[in-house]
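Reply to dn_fold:

You asked what the input looked like. This is it:
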Amino acid sequence: MNTFPRFLHIETLSKISNPYRNYAYFLFSNHKRRYTAVSLSLSTKSAEETLVVVGAGAAGVYGAIRAKTIAPDLNVVVIEKGKPLSKVKISGGGRCNVTNGHCVDNVILAGNYPRGNKELRGSFFNMHGPTDTMSWFSDHGVELKTEIDGRVFPISDNSSTIIDCLISEAKKRGVVLQTGKVVTSVSTSPGGKFSIKIEKCTIDYVEYVEADYLMIASGSSEQGHKLATQLGHSIVKPVPSLFTFKIADFQLVELSGVTFPKVRAKLKLETVQKSIPEHTQVGPMLVTHWGFSGPVILRLSAWGARDLSDSVYKGSLLVDFVPDIHIEDVKSYLIQHKNKFAKQRVISSFPSELGLVKRFWRYILEHEDLVGDLLWASISNNLLISIASRLKNCSFRVKGKGQFKDEFVTAGGVPLSEISLNTMQSQIQSRLFFAGEVLNIDGITGGFNFQVMYHIILNAWSGGYIAGTSIGNMAIAANLKEAAV
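and this is what came back:
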């Protein structure tokens, strides 16, 4: 049994007073923290059922609102360590790419998910897809616009518009949002309820909460994975996804900032344990001072996330800089240019049909040791064939990965085989739900200006809505059953 301390920090205790129930409190002795935790109810409506949502991201808040909309008497509490909807705030460069207004085909939508592409081809997006998301925000006062490439933004071009809408609706519905707190453990009672341990981030404080429903929507953080395992779930080991490539080629620095509207990039990796399939993507690419970025690289990193991790982020990248032109046509353009501009310097002119920029042409010539004032008339046909081959199949050595801005994504989490996508409910633990990045599901970038959060948020809207609907319906059914007794 603990002995009482010689002194008590009254100031600490005063900071954790609770207007509802008994708060947990801490006693200090010889600089060693001791505490006694007393069960706490997060709502005065103790007779009603309670839903606790772990995580105030897009999935958590959207799901909480939906559950409370269907079951108004359900106590809904969202617990968040940091700022609510922080990833929504940075998505789309701060504009918030809400969804895609052109893509309504489930198979095409699912094809944007390296993890989840097979499972999401079913009824997932039918239950709440892009059109439904747009309607929801429009019905709640957010004016949207669809840009030429299909991306949907608020007319304000400010993610705060989306955040304000969600927070306002949550408050209107009576959702309780508590920030600066972390759910550190969870277990189940013989009666089927969840016993949830919550700690505050800034002061010494613990509370225990009982909940009838639990939704884990904590993103790709270790917190959500830990809670899932405590409730019997397995976890697919998280590895980085959506990142840039570091390239071992010091001459690329001279090309920093050059963009290629369309390249075909093939990733070849090797490990001593197994053979790894090649990954190929087509799209825009950007040269940086450390290597390559842009949608084609981010997509390669996403689809090859696990293979890249296994190969310690080392391998070969083969790039076709003129993917729409056959190699024989490339040779033909070069020969024609030689014949037409024989007296011009090679470094000063090149076939316009190739669509190259001058800096990149110089880079290609330097790799062929063609420098100085060499004239086109002096170039042999064999050299022209070599240039054509390099344009169609230029090899680079990948020496590592770079993190993509602040919008870091991981592949891994709770396996989709352990939940029902029709309800988002666990198949292991009743009344336990998952939504968002805590699942082994991740999306690829949605546009050239690197809308990396696009498919993540799209999944969050759908998953959160389905989970909230399921919980709300279960709560209504439980109330009807109780009333009938």
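Residues 1-41, 446-455 have pLDDT under 50 and may be disordered.
Hope that clears it up.
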